[in-house]
Amino acid sequence: METLKLQNLGPADGPALVCLHGFLGTGSDWLPFAQELQRLRPEIQILLPDLPGHGESVNIPPDNFSERLIESLDAARIPRSAIAGYSLGGRLALAAVIAHPHRFPAFIGISATAGIESPLERTTRREADAKLAQRLREESFDSFLRDWWSLPIFDSPKKIPVDEFLASRLAQNPSALAEVLDAWSPGVLPALWNELPYYSGTDLLLAGESDSKYSLAARRMSEAFRSAQTQILPGCGHRLLDEAPQDLARSVAEFLSANFGIGPAKTGR
Question: Residue 19 CB: number of other CB atoms within 10 A?
Fold first, then answer.
């Protein structure tokens, strides 16, 4: 199985944190966050994969993701790590921690949810995402991105200009992204709410104050996990990696400070 392409920041012998980006993104979306986290916790090793169909993992299919992630971490010699995920990356990270709790003793969900439970809502979302995938295959990518950026979920006091968003996304491959939508639509991925109480690790759920849907999901997930906390960041929306990377890094640094058993111990610590 082909492994994910990833950036590796920080000491190779430090406790590890894997960060999964959202749909249309790359591992580099985490760099402002990672730079602040390195300043706060220089001993942490930060791994930034490109998800299948994105960035340098564009030719990797979106199947068997949890197993592919494990193989990628094995190749990087990471036996255990905390894992953080933003939006779609949060959903994939959640599936990974439930499938492999011994590998991921801590989960950080950023603008994340455990999925859609209603069969009717799942069907509606699956059909809507199938139409978006068709657009990606047949229409202008620029037009798709502009419409995507106008979705209400991205409304925020800190929303970046559309041209800045386009510049960060136009290098992606729309056909590969269409495959990702087909495979990872919330209408396709199973809901995991019933699995949350069985996860034995610790959890941090973060969302933006203006992102009411995911703020509610964060609170509900926190109540379902055995050991979790929720932080709602004021004045922010869904895209916390853009809007509040320093605040995120501080919250994650504090959370990880209570979990020193994550990853291999740093020599001489």
Answer: 29
C-alpha span between 50 and 7 (Å, rounded) = 8
Q: Is residue 7 within 8 Å of residue 47, measured between CB atoms? A: yes
pTM of the model: 0.95
For residue 44, give the nearest of 247, 253, 255 by alpha carbon: 253
| Whole-number pLDDT of residue 268 | 34
For residues 131 and 146, give the distance between their C-alpha atoms in angstroms, rounded to a whole number: 16
Q: Round to whole Å and give the CA distance between 30 and 122.
A: 29
Please tell me the distance from the alpha carbon of residue 97 to that of residue 92, in angstroms, as a whole number.
9
**Alpha helices (runs of H) in 139-239, residue ranges in sequence order:** 141-149, 162-169, 174-184, 212-224
Q: What is the predicted pLDDT for the residue at 267?
A: 35
For Cα atoms 188, 194, 197, give the angle at the middle one, nearest 5 degrees: 135
Kindly give the interhelix angle for 88-99 and 174-184, rounded to the nearest 10 degrees.
Answer: 50
What pLDDT, on a 0 to 100 scale, did the predictor assign at position 259? Answer: 67
118 vs 67, 111, 131, 183, 218, CA distance in Å?
27, 20, 20, 19, 18
Q: Helix, strand, or coil here: 231?
A: strand
- Would you say 169 and 145 are in contact if contact means Cβ atoms under 8 Å apart? yes
Q: Are 53 and 21 in contact (CB under 8 A)?
A: no
pLDDT tens for residues 173-215? 999 999 999 999 999 999 999 999 999 999 999 999 999 999 9
Residues in CB range of 169: below 8 A, 6 or more apart: 24, 25, 145
Four-CA torsion 71, 198, 50, 78, nearest 10 degrees: -40
